[in-house]
Amino acid sequence: MNFVEQYGAWALVTGASSGIGEEFARQLAQKGLNLVLVARRGERLQKLSGELNGKHGVETRVAVADLSAADFMSQIDPVIKDISIGLLVNSAGIMYINNYLDMSAADELRLIDINVKAPAILSRRLAPEMVNRGRGGIIFVASILGYMGTPYSAAYAATKAYEIAVAEGLNFELKPRGVDVMVLCPGPTKTEMLNGMDMEKMPMKPMEPAPVVAGALADLGKKVRHIPGSVNKMMVWMNKRLMSRDMATTMMGRTMKASVRT
Ligand SMILES: NC(=O)c1ccc[n+]([C@@H]2O[C@H](COP(=O)([O-])OP(=O)(O)OC[C@H]3O[C@@H](n4cnc5c(N)ncnc54)[C@H](OP(=O)(O)O)[C@@H]3O)[C@@H](O)[C@H]2O)c1
Questions:
Q1: pTM summary value
Q2: Which of 42, 174, 199, 242 is the most exposed place for a label (fewest CB within 10 A)?
């Protein structure tokens, strides 16, 4: 079966205005799926919408929404009220690499709203319809940092641990009912998220978004987790098999400290 037969005609991608989300939108359009593009920067979404429509002949809709707002579904519901979303890609996310004490409570709650609350609300809104139709897919974009306590990015890593755990649990529940759930766990990836970070001080070279997304889409329905790139895979394997959780956190702490601006 191709993607449209497997999941349905429409995908909704959050964070489609840049980086990994934008790449998901491009590759899904190439596979013939119509797209609902969600983010705050509407002009970018409109431009992408026109481009995908012209290049692949797919239908596109734009939902400008701030996923940190309590009522963000009020911006999305009217856009999707007459269509069935078969594939949900929860890619929008924000990250902080900082001393814990330099981050405010408001910053941390915003992180939780965008990285945890928004995917939770969207998945809960769309999964029941997928189950009723007996087909669908949900992709959470987490991070390899979700596999360990991560100093200087502790709250971010915790949001990604939520996405890993929720995807694993949901896939067990929903796969027998026709819905594939997957978590994509990238390592450093060349997107705007890394802007301003001194990657020279990081031991890992960032990947391009295209292979990160292509690998995830190739594994959707076959695996519950996708870790792109051999270095990222090796790192997660070492952390899980060769180190205690404390050792993994200490190693990450030393690595992350190098990129914190003092
Ligand atoms: N890049 C990496 O190294 C890396 C590594 C591991 C995991 N990840 C994960 O990959 C996902 C995508 O990140 P990326 O690398 O593609 O970063 P990015 O280029 O900065 O993209 C982030 C996307 O999230 C959207 N977003 C941010 N705040 C939002 C809000 N309040 N409401 C709605 N949309 C919002 C942004 O759109 P607007 O600004 O237009 O709203 C943008 O489209 C994230 O979940 C991130 O944690 C990234």
A1: 0.97
A2: 242
